[in-house]
What does this fold into?
Amino acid sequence: ELKVEQNPLFLSMQEGKNYTIYCNYSTTSDRLYWYRQDPGKSLESLFVLLSNGAVKQEGRLMASLDTKARLSTLHITAAVHDLSATYFCAVDAYQGAQKLVFGQGTRLTINP
Amino acid sequence: DAGVIQSPRHEVTEMGQEVTLRCKPISGHNSLFWYRQTMMRGLELLIYFNNNVPIDDSGMPEDRFSAKMPNASFSTLKIQPSEPRDSAVYFCASSRGQGATEAFFGQGTRLTVV
It folds into this structure.
């Protein structure tokens, strides 16, 4: 059974700082997704990573995938308050059709 | 496209009552997912469909839960009878399902069973 683990689960940081969220998964997959969820809202797709070594960047967020290590990272550069949210990674445990298994989520709070 | 549409947005019901949640996926998407989100358990995949066929329902917690997808544009998740521990936010999501594409989520249904 595929397991997806994120760490840290809670992260409080100051504006302007850099930090990284980690996503580990237990079985082979080369399809990984990052989502953002604001309080009381739905999940918004941020990044789609489809191969080993894939790197995607959008603004202050950068995601990467190492399929051999079964690890993805979401790096935040010079954090701003607007990035406060819960971030989820999801791994595709393809079983004849797409099946997304989510990590626990990382609640990120950025303080002024 | 309007995105994934769920109804109702909020539902409050009494224990023992039947609850039906509805979902309209994005047109052209072949895969549909039902997730449940709680503080304690996070996001749990309940069931997913591909081309209207249930592929994996191993996440459905009990026989009280059932899901159907009678056609490509509509799915339901039914709880009968409902219990207070079913209180959660239920999300429906859809994706193209062919190859690796991201899933797009609806706004969710917040269910409260009292």
